[in-house]
Design goal:
heterodimer; A: about 350 residues; alpha/beta; seven-stranded parallel sheet; 8 helices; B: about 290 residues; Rossmann fold; 7 helices
């Protein structure tokens, strides 16, 4: 496909679903919880799953797995509030903490029993680990890190869009002849839906028949992360990011200085991370964090797709770049063509004056 | 320890350019490298071999030029290399790729049982992280993804302990060999190949396996045919409907532009105005400044 012209369908192929695959109906979302805490990406997926289920005219179902107890009940109720019509509750002490084999076993059995046409998971360390194993067991298609999910109105197939070629182009991937159609989506890519506490639904209890002595891998300990000092990019409302256009490592200080005035978080492009100018946990983009701030200031960032998919949902994007043809100007709201080394200090002064700070 | 490392040769993505008019990938002159995430897998395999003895075999599925990546891995100190190449393998998605690699690893296992399989956490071109879990499932290996550290290997007992990156923390896991490990980036630092290894690599034989030597039983499961996912469209990014509003910038009076920008933002974006007001009221922490 190296020289394929883009923006054209490569080849329109027809869906050929045979036998039992015709019975696969409904959209499922895995409600991911680790240590009692539901990952917010599950509710973001529930919001998108609701849209897909409505387009197809089918039910939206949550899959809740874990140790028996009130936490699972609460997770089912939350799933209803975020849009699910039905929840499959798979309870077993073996599922208390995530391990690949028992979770793969339980989810695969559930799919084989209830036959969903679409199965969505968060692109977390848990979701990617589980999705890869489940898709291989079911011999079906899985598309990782989607930035868009839609339904083809002609053949009711899931259209999964994601960056490709190292994040320089986008592609849409379909699974025509296998079910379920599986996809993972990263945190913050889809908007968080509004919870509707008055919604309710049907809980179906399923016993996964798991026995601890059958599970080879044991969890000896869990060491929670120390969050202090770590970048809190995903929920930041203002972010200043720097890229290779800053020229050299020392100039990254200008990004920090402006962020300090704004009370903003600091982000970076992949190129700036690879240059070693800043720590990897500050990367914004497909392989870094996805952010949705009110204000995103991109200094010296060219705006390749892999960066764009991580920040294009920002309300207001200000791009500063020397190159008037930089792709970032195609999707920024405000453009300053100029040298970051001159623009950033000026921005810092302007904002400091507005905010009543003394320099 | 008999260790197999799966690697992939990828285009160095920092050199990929998209033609501005045709929106096609310009591949000419893009250098090919070992997927950078795989280097952590190679290094970890070499460390276990150095500590426990045995050998490291590096394998890849790809076109004949991928032999260059294998030779590079030999220069780092890997003992043997197998290139798995056949025209019918092309166009494979992750399901079809894991089928071929699992089949080849089974063949290696017939020569000598395999204790550990390593992969990188994902590739930089596909970014899926699906092939490692796929191989583990097909070979019924214990799967340990996103491993940040190998804590202990007990060869006699056939056990391994690792630290695995999970959401919100690190799991300390113990499992049994054989296992498949996907290594997290930054988990170690790649060694420089020694002079003898570099010389050996230049002349070393790289075994080349086609579908038969790789033990492929069902050719309907490989390549494009064996891939349930289909790329239906490749496209470039769409510009916003409205072009970015240009703020004229004069280096002689830089604050004229930035003041104009602030004024426009405040007028157009109530959300930003609100966030600035919140910050003024001391409600934001912002980045912890280093």
């Amino acid at each position: 496909m190296s020289n394929a012209r883009t923006d054209k369908p490569i080849k329109k192929r027809k869906v050929k679903l045979e036998g039992d695959l015709l019975n696969y109906k409904g959209v499922w979302v895995l409600v991911e919880s680790e240590r009692g805490y539901v990952h917010p990406v599950s509710w973001e997926l529930m919001g998108q799953g609701r849209i897909l289920a409505d387009q197809l005219g089918v039910e939206l179902c949550g899959v809740v797995m874990g140790a028996p107890g009130p936490a699972l009940q609460a997770q089912c109720e939350a799933a209803f509030a975020y849009g699910a019509d039905r929840c499959y509750r798979v309870a077993s002490p073996v599922l208390a903490d995530y391990r690949n084999v028992p979770f793969t076993h339980a989810l695969t059995d559930l799919v084989n029993q209830f036959k969903p046409e679409i199965l969505l998971l968060g692109a977390t360390t848990l979701g990617r680990d589980l999705a890869g194993s489940v898709a291989t067991t079911l011999k079906t298609g899985l598309t990782a890190d989607c930035t868009g999910l839609d339904i083809d109105p002609e053949d009711r197939c899931l259209l999964s869009t994601r960056p490709t070629f190292g994040g320089s182009l986008l592609c849409t991937i379909v699974t025509l002849n296998y079910r379920p159609q599986m996809a993972t989506v990263r945190h913050r890519v889809m908007p968080m839906p509004e919870a509707q506490p008055e919604r309710s639904g049907l809980i179906i209890d399923v016993d996964p028949h798991l026995v601890e002595t059958d599970v080879v891998t044991k969890i000896l300990d869990f060491l929670p992360d120390d969050q202090s000092g770590k970048a809190q990019l995903p929920y930041a409302e203002m972010i200043v990011s720097g890229g290779k256009g800053l020229g050299k490592a020392e100039n990254f200080k200008l990004v920090w200085d402006l962020a300090k005035v704004l009370g903003a978080e600091v982000g970076a492009s992949r190129a700036a991370i690879h240059a070693g100018w800043i720590s990897a946990d500050r990367q914004v983009g497909q392989t870094g964090k996805t952010v949705r701030p009110a204000l995103y200031i991109a200094a010296g960032i060219s705006g390749a797709i892999q960066h764009r998919v991580g920040m294009e949902s920002s309300d207001c994007i200000v791009a500063i770049n020397n190159d008037p043809n930089a792709p970032i100007f195609d999707f920024a709201h405000y453009a300053i063509v100029g040298d970051c080394v001159q623009v950033l200090p000026a921005l810092q002064k302007t904002f400091a004056a507005y905010l009543g700070q003394t320099a | 320890m008999n260790i197999v490392v799966c690697i992939k040769q990828v285009p160095d993505s920092t050199h990929i350019r998209v033609h501005p008019v045709t929106n096609t990938i310009m591949r000419q002159g893009v250098p090919a490298v070992i997927n950078p995430y795989d280097l952590f897998a190679i290094e970890e395999a070499l460390r276990i071999r150095d500590a426990h003895g045995g050998k490291v075999t590096v394998i890849t599925m790809g076109p004949p030029p991928a032999a260059v990546a294998l030779r590079k891995a030999l220069a780092y100190g890997c003992d043997e290399a197998v290139l798995i190449t056949d025209k019918i393998f092309s166009g494979a998605d992750t399901l079809a790729t894991s089928y071929v690699l699992a089949s080849a690893i089974s063949m290696l296992g017939k020569e000598q049982p395999v204790d550990l399989v390593f992969t990188g956490k994902q590739t930089i071109d596909g970014d899926t992280a699906q092939v490692g879990p796929g191989i583990a499932k097909r070979l019924d290996l214990e799967l340990l993804t996103y491993v940040a550290k190998i804590v202990a290997v007990d060869q006699a007992a056939g056990k391994i302990q690792v630290e695995r990156r999970a959401e919100g923390g690190v799991q300390l896991l113990e499992t049994r060999l054989p296992a498949l490990i996907t290594m997290l980036e930054g988990s170690n630092e790649m060694r420089f190949g020694t002079a003898p290894d570099v010389f050996r690599a230049a002349r070393a034989e790289i075994r080349t396996w086609d579908r038969n030597s790789a033990g492929i039983e069902d050719i309907k499961k490989v390549g494009l045919k064996g891939s349930p996912t289909i790329v239906s469209r490749v496209f470039g990014p769409t510009p916003r409907d409205e072009k970015a509003e240009q703020i004229a910038f004069d280096p002689a009076a830089p604050e004229v532009a930035t003041a104009a920008l602030l004024e426009k933002i405040l007028a157009d974006s109530p959300k930003v105005a609100k966030e600035l007001a919140r910050h003024q009221a001391g409600e934001h922490a912002g980045a912890r400044h280093e």
